[in-house]
Automatic annotation (TrEMBL):
Compartments it resides in: Cytoplasm
Keyword Membrane: no
Organism the protein comes from: Alkalibacterium subtropicum
Full protein name: DNA replication and repair protein RecF
Protein family: Belongs to the RecF family.
All residue ranges annotated as the RecF/RecN/SMC N-terminal domain in the record: 2-347
Residues binding ATP: G30, E31, N32, A33, Q34, G35, K36, T37
Role of this protein: The RecF protein is involved in DNA metabolism; it is required for DNA replication and normal SOS inducibility. RecF binds preferentially to single-stranded, linear DNA. It also seems to bind ATP.
Length: 373
């Protein structure tokens, strides 16, 4: 999968911008605050119909602009098609092959991207919500089924929490209505949990040899999906649903007191272990970075396994955060295999011999220009 070209209008600090990209490595070169990360973000927005930097779409619309438009052309092994995102005060429109998509779930997945930025180191040492978001964003690209069940789960969870809060205020509860919500939430929760458990196991399979290679066979990485209910490869969805229902029943009094649901996928986590020790708690900064890098590189291979296409890789100022060994491993892993976009203020600290035929774009004050091929 490749992004052949990109066009921006009214996006952040770009009044207009156009670029045609290499299938290999594309470098956005320029000083800070000139628009390199905005360019990278626009590719992410084109793929995911949302920014990774802000939840407020209005921030993506340029100053004194009525709307922002991001248009791109994607090429796969089988076909080529245009994608378009338009953001305005009236909302968001997503178009695939010039046809507006009523549901974003029908749009997402037509440009698969993996973003690796300095803040992604928080994947390991950050809060559980960071890792849940990681699962939801990455799995949502690879599986429309997962995305459907996740959206349904979140919708029912919102209804259930609202009812619990309402009951906390008036002291009354309709057990029949609550039972209906419980059944619906547990059914969708079981689907989400089954998909997440499988994804983490498959991610571990790819991440283990990568981590061992980076650590020169000194470390073994294992991943665990830590849930509020017991999960295993042998347990089916019906049993997981029953376990969730038991949790709701067990927690009912506390949930009514607190006005929130205390069990389910929205409370879960992913744990990383190096040589049997929790790297989030006991790992060195180097081990945490190696773990984050291993997981990101594993994700590339897993996405190829699940979708049949390699994703587009976005490296936003991440090379400066990696030492020589990790930088070398990253660049060797992706060269001539994955279309890559990277931002940097200078190529001085980058191992140029590992950048095969890069297409370099200079970015200055919201303008992008191809420097060389």
């Amino acid at each position: 999968m490749f992004l052949k070209e990109l066009s921006l209008r009214g996006y952040r600090n770009y009044e207009t911008a156009e670029a045609k990209f290499s299938k290999k490595i594309n470098v956005f070169l320029g000083e800070n605050a000139q628009g390199k990360t905005n360019m990278m973000e626009s590719i992410y927005v084109l793929a995911m119909a949302r920014s990774h930097r802000t939840a407020n779409d209005k921030e993506l619309i340029g100053w004194d602009q009525d709307f922002a438009k991001v248009t791109g052309k994607v090429e796969t092994d089988k076909t080529t098609y245009p994608l378009e995102i338009v953001l305005s005060n009236k909302g968001k429109k997503a178009r695939l092959n010039h046809l507006e998509q009523k549901k974003l779930s029908a749009y997402i997945g037509h440009l698969n991207v993996i973003l690796f930025a300095p803040e992604d180191l928080a994947l390991v040492k950050g809060s559980p919500s960071v890792r849940r978001k990681f699962l939801d964003m990455e799995m949502g690209q690879m599986s429309t089924i997962y995305l459907y069940h996740l959206v349904e789960y979140q919708k029912i969870l919102k209804q259930r929490n609202a009812y619990l809060k309402q009951n906390r205020r008036n002291g009354k509860i309709d057990q029949t209505y609550l039972s209906i919500l419980n059944e619906q939430l547990a059914a969708e929760g079981a689907e989400v949990l089954a998909e997440r458990f499988s994804f983490v196991k498959r991610l571990e399979k790819w991440a283990q040899p990568i981590h061992a290679d980076i650590s020169q066979e000194k470390e073994e990485l294992t991943l665990e999906y830590a849930s509020t209910v017991s999960l295993s490869s042998e347990k089916d969805k019906d049993q997981v649903m029953k376990d969730l229902l038991e949790q709701y029943k067990k927690n009912e009094r506390r949930e009514m007191d607190q006005g929130t649901t205390l069990a389910g996928p929205h409370r879960d986590d992913v744990r990383f272990y190096v040589n049997g020790k929790n790297v989030q708690t006991y790992g060195s900064q180097g081990q945490q970075r190696t773990t984050a890098l291993s997981v990101k590189l594993a994700e590339i291979e897993l996405m190829k396994e699940m979708t049949g296409e390699y994703p587009v890789l976005l490296l936003d100022d991440v090379l400066s955060e990696l030492d020589d060994d990790r930088q070398t491993h990253l660049l060797k892993s992706i060269q001539d295999k994955v279309q890559t976009f990277l931002t940097t203020t200078s190529l001085d600290g980058v191992k140029k011999e590992l950048l095969h035929d890069p297409r370099i774009f200079t970015v200055h004050n919201g303008q992008i220009e191809m420097e060389s091929e």
